[in-house]
Amino acid sequence: MVLFTAVANWFRRNIGKALGIVACGFGAGGLIIPLVPWLIDACGWRSALVILAVIMWAIGIPLAFVIRDKPEKYGYLPDGGTMSAATLSSQIEPEVVEISFVEIIKGRTLWFISLAEAIRWIILTAVVVHIMPYLTSIGISRANAALVAAAIPLVSLIGRFGFGWLGDTFDKRYLMAVTYGLTGLGMLALSYSSVWLFMFLFLICFPLAHGGGVTLRGAMMSEYFGRSSFGKTLGTIMGISSIGGIIGPILAGFTFDTRGSYQLIWLAFCGLTIISVAVILMVKSATNSALGFRNDIGQ
User: Fold this and answer.
1) Distance of CA 102 to CAs 105, 229, 294, Å?
2) Predicted TM-score (pTM) above 0.85
3) Nearest alpha carbon to residue 16 among 181, 229, 220
4) Which of 125-134, 150-159, 240-249 has the least mean pLDDT?
5) What is the phi-psi region of residue 145: left when phi exceeds 0, alpha when psi lies from -120 to 50, beta otherwise?
6) Alpha carbon 278 to chain centroid, angstroms
């Protein structure tokens, strides 16, 4: 959330691409996951944790001091403009009228996006937690199940940057609806993933949707709510989404414990995505101005 907020302060026109690059960093972190069991086997889990902590101190903290919060503090404007140039060139876009957080929570847009994202995270966390037990329960070897689990964050890199790129050109509401639809299609495929054709379909649809949703969510926040309240709105949406993240794994585990199969819950999650698509399409088009948002409050 902190990194997305910093990026949103520096970009407006290319916010989708910028957030996509940052989101790819999160996804690429999955590449070092094999290092963890290797360290545990070589050093023991306590020493492995200490080594990872030292790596974070040595790399993460110095990089954190390189990050700059807002461009205005350094004589710049978002998208690379300078303050002196902005006063001389009529081609520089005027700054977006910012909206207060109080106004934002009075409108419907924040709550529509939060509901849609909460449903996404019900599904996402259930899959992340239960993908290995599910695949082994349908007869897939643990080695192949591990490959499938590892493929999800890697394939999501395409969605993270690809949907971010598209988000700078096309209406982000419709792109978000596409990611929810792909999530539903992925869950339908997962229900029949004992057939490898459906497994392949799942590994295309679900990770692309997950990665694209991460980027588009931040890009929508910037477009609809501006910079001054970006951190608060993103934090609100992530907080509400985390409730779904708690519910999802519990529902999936309960279903397996009572029915001996995950198929029913995967199909139910597929149906839930219809609600997400409907809700996100109820969000009004962004006008890039406070007036349009305040009209939404009034309605």
Assistant:
1) 5, 10, 11
2) no
3) 220
4) 150-159
5) alpha
6) 19
The residues pairing with 82 across neighbouring beta strands, listed in sequence order, are 76
Q: How many CA atoms lie within 13 A of 7 on its CB side?
A: 21
- pLDDT tier at 290 (50, 70, 90 boundaries)? very low
Residues 6+ apart with CB under 8 A from 120: 179, 180, 183, 213, 241, 244, 273, 276
Non-local CB neighbours of 288 within 8 Å, separated by 6+ positions: 96, 223
In this structure, the number of other CB atoms found within 10 A of the CB of residue 135 comes to: 23
Q: Which two tokens stand for residue 118?
A: 């909460």
Please tell me the distance from the alpha carbon of residue 139 to that of residue 13, in angstroms, as a whole number. 48
Strand stretches in 138-276, DSSP E: none
* 13-67 pLDDT tens trace: 889 999 999 888 877 776 776 787 788 889 998 999 999 999 999 999 999 898 8
- Residue 76 bridge partners (DSSP): 82
Integer Cα distance of 114 and 101 in angstroms:
15
Q: How many CB atoms lie within 10 A of CB 229?
A: 20
- The number of domains in the chain is 1
Asked whether 245 and 27 are in contact (CB, 8 A), the reply is no
Range of the domain at 114: 1-299
The CATH number assigned to the domain holding 60 equals 1.20.1250.20
The two three-digit tokens of residue 96, written as one number: 């977006």
How many whole angstroms separate alpha carbon 56 and alpha carbon 262? 37
